[in-house]
Amino acid sequence: MFVARSIAADHKDLIHDVSYDFHGRRMATCSSDQSVKVWDKSESGEWLCTASWKTHSGSVWRVTWAHPEFGQVLASCSFDRTAAVWEEIVGESNDKQRGLSHWIKRTTLVDSRTSVTDVKFAPKHMGLMLTTCSADGVVRIYEAPDVMNLSQWSLQHEISCKLSCSCISWNPSSSRAHPSMFAVGSDDSNVASGGKVQIYEYNENTRKYGKVETLMTVTDAVHDIAFAPNLGRSFHVLAIATKDVRIFKLAPMRKESSSTGPSKFEVQIVAQFDNHNSQVWRVSWNITSTLLASSGDDGCVRLWKANYMDNWKCTGILRGDGSPLSASSGQPISTTVGSSLLSQNALNGISAGRPVSRHPRRTSMNNKLKKHEF
């Protein structure tokens, strides 16, 4: 049973992102009201706002948590062309802030000349590293050489992706068989400009990240992208939010023992769903990569799960108002690529329904703090 609970967020404008910490007991939200709020889950299961502060001079697009191994650390990015790193300080509150978390800004990253559209911490086995992507088509990777001093960050890599970037995701695999890898999505609306998802991999010889794959079948604007947690698989699974939900399998092809070049992948689309009948804005995996959640402009969170034959289907729907909805109650049939149920609409990526908002980074109403519990 999937339960939705509504929270009075008290943001003064659109909420663009909701991010949970590693343990799922803390949550951060950001908004066009230029603020970030931090929420803590009480023993009774209620979400309580424990901190709220103005972070940027423009809309805040994304907020993300570092691994708790590095402390209570947040990063945010904004239309104001900057990303910022925040750290929670315990035991330094004054009378005005007593009882509330005390967050202070450790650094502002100002390298981008345009809106910074996404920010992500790298997997913890790589150390404390932070990645940003911008509308100018550049991915920047920063490193904190001293994890005890978060005011010092060095720019390690600057990668030009040629297309405006909208989202980024690290491959969380810590296997030595898999070099460090990330995927970046573009919200470029020009279909003729080619594939909107690019895969980059670290090369030990050049000590740089190079592009190893472009998903040429994804030609519509990409709003979110997420690698599934890798629990010993030899291949990678990537979810993409565009005008529909797509799940790709990337299987590394066997290299010659003497080969030092970039990896080659056998790319296969394993599922494609247009059930949202609208733009899809977020995709998110559970920690075991057995369940994928997506949210769209239809005002619903939809949950997807694969059976033992690796056929994906919708297992639950949560409406924006918090009421549950049967996966089969008047909804379009879930379609799995390769099955006889695949519709032409899914193949063509056709999406009917409401016109898409022209707000530059609008998220669906169900992203306005509708808690979905896996």
TrEMBL record:
Gene Ontology BP term (one): positive regulation of TORC1 signaling
Region (Disordered): 350-374
Pfam families according to UniProt: WD40
Residues making up the signal peptide according to the UniProt record: none
Subcellular location: Chromosome, Centromere, Kinetochore; Lysosome membrane; Nucleus, Nuclear pore complex
Placement of WD repeats on the sequence: 8-40, 273-305
Gene Ontology terms for molecular function: structural molecule activity
SUPFAM superfamilies listed in its UniProt record: WD40 repeat-like
Key words, A-Z: Cell cycle, Cell division, Centromere, Chromosome partition, Kinetochore, Lysosome, Mitosis, mRNA transport, Nuclear pore complex, Nucleus, Protein transport, Repeat, Translocation, Transport, WD repeat
Cellular component GO terms held in the UniProt record: kinetochore; lysosomal membrane; nuclear pore outer ring; Seh1-associated complex
Biased composition (Basic residues): 356-374
Keyword Repeat: yes
Family: Belongs to the WD repeat SEC13 family.
Record protein name field: SEH1-like (S. cerevisiae)
